[in-house]
Amino acid sequence: MAVRPGGTDVYVNGDLTLNDATLKGGDSGSYLGGALNNQSGTVTLNRATITGNTSSGAGAAYNRSGTMTLTDCVVSFNTGNAGVGGILSEADSADAS
Question: 11-16 long-range CB contacts below 8 Å, 24 or more apart?
Fold first, then answer.
C-alpha cells in the first residue's frame, strides 16, 4: 500500500483490510479511484465510509485486477469526471453487501 500526496489516498498492490475507516477528500486527478486504487491486491473494507472523493474515472474506488470486498460500507458524494462516481471494477471479483 502507498499513499500518494495529491493523488489517490490509498494505492494497493498487496493485501489491505480497513475497519471503521473514512476515506475522504481524495483527488486522483487523471488516475482512477479518488480514494482507493486497487491494482492487483486483496482489499477488504468493513464499516468504512468513502465520501467526497474525485477522479477522472471512478470517484470513490477503482478495482483493476484484484479482489475488493465491501461490507456495511457507505459510498456517497464522490465524483468521477467520466461518469462513475462510485466504484468501477474491471476485475473478476468484487463484492458489496
Answer: 11/37, 11/39, 12/36, 12/37, 12/38, 12/39, 12/41, 12/43, 12/66, 13/39, 13/40, 13/41, 14/41, 14/42, 15/41, 15/42, 15/43, 16/41, 16/42, 16/43, 16/44
pLDDT at 7: 54
Q: Say whether pLDDT at 31 is over 60.
A: yes
Nearest CA among 20, 74, 92, 82 for reference residue 54: 82
Model-level pTM? 0.84
Cβ 3 vs Cβ 11: under 8 Å: yes
